[in-house]
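Regression test attached.
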Amino acid sequence: MKPKQKNRFASLLDSEKWSSVTIPALSVILSLITASIMLLILGKNPATAFLSFLQGSGFVSKPGYGGGGGMLTDFFTYLNVLAPMLLASLGFVMAFKAGLFNIGIAGQMLAAGFLATAIIGYSGLSAWLAKPLVILVGAAAGGLLGAFVGFLKYKFNIHEVVSTIMLNYIISYLTGFFINDRFADSLTRSMKICSDSARLSWTDVQIAGMKCSIPLGIALALAAAFVVKFIFDKTVFGFELRAVGRNPICARYTGIKVGRRIVVSLMLSGMLAGLAGVTYYCGYYNTIVPKSLAGMGYDAIAVALLGNSSPIGAIFASILITIFQNGSNYMSSTLGVAKEIASLITGILLLFSACGGYFRYLAHRRLERAVDEEAQKAAAESDAPEISENGKEG
Amino acid sequence: MEDYIVEMRHITKRFPGIVANDDVTIQVKRGEVYALLGENGAGKSTLMSMLFGMYQADMGEILIEGKPVHFRSSNDATAHNIGMVHQHFKLVDNYTVAENIVLGVEPMKKALGVLPYVDMKTANREIAELSKTYGLEVNPTNKIEDIPVSVRQRVEILKMLYRKAEILIFDEPTAVLTPQEIEFLLKIIDGLRKSGKTIILITHKIEEIKKIADRCAILYRGRLVKVLDVPSTSSQDMANLMVGRQVDFNPHKSPANYRDTVLDVEHLTVRNANKFDVVKDVSFHIRGGEIFAIAGVSGNGQVELADAIAGMLKIHEGTVKLCGEEIGSLPIRQRTEAGISYIPEDRQGTGVFLDFNLGDNLALRQYYRAPFAKKGILQFNEFEKYANDLIQRYDIRCGQGRKTSLRSMSGGNQQKAIIAREIEEHAKLIIFVQPTRGLDIGAIENIHRQILAERDKGVAVLLVSLELDEIMELADTIGVIYNGELLKIADASTLTSHDVGKYMMGVKEA
C-alpha cells in the first residue's frame, strides 16, 4: 500500500464512527488468515474448509443430503444453536456493562433447563400453556440464581467470579444427582426427554419438502438484543448500570444505590442466561446429560467480548462463532480434520479481537505521525514560523 | 562561554491538534535549580519528557554537557545521568523501599559461584548510606504500601541518586504534599544543589520558585515567554507572565452578610472501616452567606467530616441538620435534593466518570428527573441543551463540546465542570474539599471568585483546604481540625495564619 492509502486505512480504523465496525472486521480477517495458515500446514485447502463450515450451517448447499433433509434443515439447526448462544452472550453483556463478570452462565443455563424440564416438560400441559411457562420458569430460575450472586457480593463482598464458579459446580452436581435419582431415562442415562408441547422448537416441520426444526428462541433472542440495547442506551436504569460499571465510587457519589444495581444487573444477566438455558435444553436439545455443563456458557463470554460487549455486536459475533461451532461436524467429516479446529478458530478470533484496542492505537499513532510529517514538510517548504492557532489547550 | 549541562534548542513537539512545545530553547547551568513555570498544559511536562527520553522532539536538538544526544527511551537518559521524579510515582507497592530502588540495576551475586541472585544485603546497606548522605530518611526494608506519600517521594529521589543521576527533574513534586512536607522537600532540594546536582523543577507554584529556584523559565501555551533571574523578579510579575495577563491576587471580598443557620452539626462522630474514630464529637454551624473553612494538616479527619455531611460516610453519633431538618440518616441522593452540593477531594475518582462524556457528567445530579428523564427514558436533547449552556457560562474548554470525553480534558477544566454542575444545583450548602488542588493560578483565581459569589448569594459554604493561604483569603469563620477534633472555631478576622498554623499542629492555646 502507498502511504496515502495506509493513512486512509488508519483513519478508518481510528474514526469515532466506524471503528466499532472496522476493528472487529479487521480482527476477523486476521483470524481467518491465521486459521488458513494452520489448515495449510495440516495439508488442507482452507477455502474448502470454510465452505464446509458454511455448508454445515446451511448457508451454502451441500453436494447431497440424507432422507428428508436439505439446506433449510441445516439452517434451522444452526438457528437452534444460535438462539441460546446469543441469549447467553447477552446475559454476559448485561452484567459486564455494570462491571460484573458473570462466569456462571453455564450453571444458570443448566438450572433453568433442568427446572423447566422437570416442572413443565413432563406436565402434559398444552403447547399454548407449556411453552410460555417454560420460558417463565427458565427466566425465573436464572434470575434468582443471578440475584443470589449479586446478593452475596452486595452483602458479604464475595466476588462474583468466585461465587459463580462455585455455583456452576453445585448446580452441575445437584442437577446430576436429581437426574440420576429421579428423572433418568433407563436407556440413555440422560434426563427423560422434555415433551414436544413444552419444547421451544417445533420439530419435524416440513418446509419446501425439507424436515426442519424451527426454534422459537431465535425471535426471543433477537428481541432480547434490542431490549438490552434500549436499556443501556436510552433508560435511566441503563445509565445507572453503566455508571456503576465504570466507577462505583462516583456512582455512589451521584446518589445511585450501587448495591441494589449490582443485584439487579446480575439478576437480569441470570434471566437471560436462564432463557438461553431453556432454548438450549428444551429447544435445541430435549434432554440433559447429568453432571455436564454446556460449553456454550463459556463460549458466550468469548462471543460477547468479540462483539465489543455491545448487544448488537453480540448478534454478529454469535452468528459468526456459531457458524464455526455448528459447522464443525460437517467440516470434520468432509475434510478429515478434527472438529476441535472450530474451537481453535474461536480461540484465534478471540485473541485477535482482544487486540482490537492495540490495532486502534497503532492506527492512531500512524495518523499522528502523518500529521507531524506534513507539518514538518510545510514548515520546511515555507520556512515560516509554525501556525499555532489550534494549540490553545495544551 | 557558560558551562551549560543541559541545552534544549528550538524544540518543537506536536500532538494531534496541539503544539505542545513551539520552538522552545532552554539552557541549564551546572549546579543550579532551574524552574519551569507555567499553567497546566503550557508544555512543561512535555518538554521534560523529551529530556528524559519518553518522547522524541519533532524538531530541535538536545545537548548534554555540550554534546548532542538522541534519546530513544528513558534508559538512554538514565545512561546520561538524568533522573526524573514523575508526578505520579512509579513504584511497586508490595516491594520494599530497597527493592524498588535497585529494580533494574540490582547488585548481583552468585551463590556457589553459579546461581545468580540479588544481593539485597548490599542493596539495603548502600541505600541506608545514600539516604544518610542526602538527609533522605527512609527505612530500606519498609514496604511501599506501608509508607506515606512524602516518604515515597524520597524513595523516588533515592532511585535517581542510586542511578548516579546528576540532572534531577522533578515534575510537580509538591502537588501531593502538605505544607510541612513541602518545607522538608525544599530543604532536600537545596541539599542536593549544594552537593553539586543540577535540578530542574516543574511547577506552577510561584512561592516555591521564590524559595528555592535560581532561574525560572516561563512557558505560556507551548512557547517560551521569558527566562528570569528569580531573586530579582517579583512574584506578581511571574504570575502575570505565566497566566499571560494581569492576575488579581486578592479577590475583593465584600463584608459578610450572615443569614439564618443552614448547617448545624452537633456532636458528630465518624468511624472509619477499622472502627476507629476519625471525627470526634465535632460541633459547629454555618449560616447562609458564610464561608466556614476547616484548616488542618492532611489526614486529620477533615475529608471524613465532609463525607459524613454529604452522606458518603455513615455517621456514628451526633446529628446533622440542614435548615432545621435532620438529614444525618438520609441516603446521598435525598441529601442532594435537600440542598447539599459536594465538590469532592478526589475529582477524577469520585467527582466524574472519566469514561463518560462531558454532557453526561454535567447532568449527573439531574439525569434521573424531569426534564432530563421522562418515565425512565433519558431525554438526550435536554442533556445537550443543558451541557451547551453550562459549557458556555462556565467557560469549560473542551475539544468536542459536550461529547468530549472527560479523560481528555485538563484537570482544571474537569474541576470547572464539577463546580458548574454543583453550583447549578442551587444548593443551600456547598461543600468544597480542596477545590483548587493541583490547579494553576488562573483556575484558582476563577474558583475563588465563584466560591465568594456563592457566599454573597447567601449560600452556606463549607471549605476544606490544606492550603492555609486559601483559607485565610476566603474564610469568614475558621475551624481548625486536629486528630479528628475541632480544636478552635473563631471568626477569621481574629486569627492570623500563624495562630491557625499552631492549632493545626495540635497546640491548644495559642
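Expected vs. actual: identical. Chain A has 15 helices and two strands.
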